[in-house]
Amino acid sequence: GLTTWNDEQEDVATELLATLAEEVKTGLVKTPKRLSSRFFYDAQGSRLFQEIMRSPDYYLTRSEYEILDTYKSELLRHFTENDSQAFDLVELGAGDGLKTKILLRYFVEQQARFAYAPVDISADALDELVGDVNRQFPDLSLKPQHDDYFHSLQQLASESDTRRVILFLGSNIGNFTPDEAVDFYQQLSDRLQPGELVLTGFDLQKHPAVIHTAYNDRDGLTKAFNLNLLRRINRELGADFDLAAFDHYESYNPENGEARSYLVSQKSQTVQIGALAMTVPFQAGEIIHTEISRKFTRTQIEQLAEKTGFVVTGWFTDSKGYFADVVFRK
Ligand code: AVI
């Protein structure tokens, strides 16, 4: 019933607050300081990310949108094994589901037999998505889950009556370290049965200037998104970060395909974190590393599949060759 669901939501929220506290406690005493981008997505962070996805400089979303729109019928053939098989579409990090709705609409039109199971770390984004999908596709069966990827992976049963297709879109995979990425597919591989699929959106290596611009957008949305992490820590952990005293800096290294986000202290200052009884000193110009957004080569993607027990059975790119949606089959 409703009470149980609310209780569960509260448990998840309490757990997320505890992980944020732990992250801040350990991350801000490291040299260099660091905080994980997984904490970007509170209500405001999710909204800012939606704005980033509409920015003309953030090409990733448009590229993937083009791919899904162009290849939706081919993707459905992959998902149903050419045989109108029923499947559960499990989307990790669904967000506002803007791109996924292209697939949902087409699959519903084609009367595919499937249920949609979105998973997201942001309760607000998930609530919105569920409301939206219910309105647009009233007959589609929905199984939402408020959780982070790793936890939801652990909940993924190793056996299922319904064939599962896992969606991991938007280059979310790029926010993992190489080791985390291997670990992620290994966990999937361990839980999926032969014939089950993972469709992942990978941002590809390209002219470094294009990538650099995507993370240094003209409207300062990426800057606001990055700084919002400090606002969240102020609110949830009673800290007193002065947002005006920090700047956003993003570098892209074309040698290893890593875009990295930093917050930069604009002056020598001290920050109090009330809930942790912690005082954090910053020197002028000192950074907090907040995010990695990795860009891939085709070879790296194929090696990732091979290493973790998958076979690449589908490779779809946009007309510019900026982005790839790739089918891994267990
Ligand atoms: C969610 N993730 C794939 C985005 C990215 O591109 O790494 C988050 C983001 N960070 C800055 N802009 C967008």
UniProtKB/TrEMBL annotation:
Pfam families, A to Z: Methyltransf_33
GO annotation terms (biological process): methylation
Superkingdom classification of source: Bacteria
Organism field: Spirosoma terrae
Record-listed E.C. numbers: 2.1.1.44
Protein name listed in UniProt: L-histidine N(Alpha)-methyltransferase
Keywords: Methyltransferase, Transferase
The keyword Cell membrane is annotated on this UniProt entry: no
Enzyme superclass (EC): transferase
One function term, GO molecular function aspect: L-histidine N(alpha)-methyltransferase activity
All copies of domain Histidine-specific methyltransferase SAM-dependent, residue ranges: 21-329
UniProt cross-references to PANTHER family, sorted A to Z: ERGOTHIONEINE BIOSYNTHESIS PROTEIN 1
